[in-house]
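Entry — protein

Goal — fold tokens:
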Amino acid sequence: MILRPSLRACGSIALLSMTIACSEARDPIVVEEGTVTVENLTDADWKSVRIVVNDRFNGGVPSLKAGQRVNAPLSQFQSGLGYRYDRGRMSVYKVEVTATDSSGQPVSLIWGESRTAK
């Protein structure tokens, strides 16, 4: 007697394999629709979370627990001179997040790239 898997079982296995192969890790920094979202994808809480947009506009939160996220409108980010991010005139090319985790280790995440003069 020859045992053959049913087509339904083969299809389920193929679908599961395809789902695993196609799923990607989430990005801890997402920029969309005028908002910066930072998600702590680690097992450690973060403190003194600083978010810098385009090397100039600052924001942040005192802490971000493991698995938690913060959503910040770009209009809330401000330069050291008090200028606010103007979404109508500017594009986000870089977001940098720095913090300290619960064991005292530094956290550093970067989305995008710096612009350099050519």
Observations:
- Residues 40 and 68 are 6 Å apart (CA to CA).
- Helices lie at 7-22.
- The radius of gyration is 21 Å.
